[in-house]
Amino acid sequence: MSGNRNHFLKDLLRTEDLSRADVELVLATARDFADEPLKSASALAHKSVAIYMTKPSTRTRLASETAVAHLGGTPIFLRGDELQIGRGETIEDTARIVSQFCSALIIRTYAQSDVDQLGAHASIPVINALTDEDHPTQLLADWMVIREKFGKDISGRKLVYVGDGNNVANSWLLMGAIMGAHVIAATPSGKFAVAPEVIAKAQEIASASGGKVESTNDAKAACEGASVIYTDVWMSMGDSESERAEKFKALSPFAVDEKLMSLTAKDSIFMHCLPAHRGEEVATTVIDGEKSVVWREAFHRRTTIQALLYLLTRGELKGN
């Protein structure tokens, strides 16, 4: 993990960096920013935050730039082709330069190792806003919605991810484990499943938190009586188009439709990190139906990134 274990968490590089206390503090702070967006409007006054993205973005970019502005700072958006890192400058040198000008760095990119190296060499907080392996800021927004819907007591509830065993699935299991929840990943077997090492790490965290982590290839059994059904697109950024037919065939039994939702608890909700492909991973009637909370998830991308920036720049997160 990043940061000094006896001091504070400098960066959010991976979901597993966060302790339960950290998550609770982020959620409480985000709740304040949801109610009063300009509550800390001078926290980053006369300061800038770099937002570096090598992947396309709608929610993360809008949420990040708005979060910086609400804290009184200036967001500096940088595409992958706009820095010398794209022409061979090292990550280490880039981290040192950005640290001289900015108070934090938000990055959305492909390789988790790039984010890890930036965190290691930057003197400012680095926030992982998505890699091919992890998506911690999304899960914080998701847990804001789960908390709004079900409160703090989630005992007896199943929180189920259905579909491709991708970066969001990884984060789903890890964050659920941190929060002491019963989380399940229902995916195809083989190469579209969650990596065994991720499941093992989540189960290790759950053993200490009182949570329960499961993986299965049976979507119907997983969704039976579930309180949350979560899915993501089947073709993520960076996936090979040559795999599309094979992937869709493997994932078709995991599409979230009315039939699958009918197996869930009466007060269940449907979640999706967006963008969504209606008619593929989710039926239009589900994502646009009364159980869907996808727009509230999108709203909380801003509140949680704002909370992270506020807390990390003040050294208030402790890590695990």
Radius of gyration: 19 Å
Number of helices: 12
- The dominant shape is globular
Sheet with most strands: strand arrangement = 7-6-5-8-9
Q: Care to count the β-strands?
A: 9
Task: Provide tags for this entry.
320 residues, alpha/beta, Rossmann fold, 2 domains, 5-stranded parallel beta sheet, 4-stranded parallel beta sheet, 12 helices, 9 strands, 13% strand
Describe the overall structure.
With 320 residues, this protein is α/β, with parallel strands linked by helices. The protein folds into 2 domains: 134 residues, Aspartate/ornithine carbamoyltransferase (Rossmann fold); 161 residues, Aspartate/ornithine carbamoyltransferase (Rossmann fold, 3-Layer(aba) Sandwich), CATH 3.40.50. Helices cover 41% and strands 13% of the residues. Strands 7-6-5-8-9 form a 5-stranded parallel sheet. The longest helix has 20 residues. The N terminus is likely disordered.
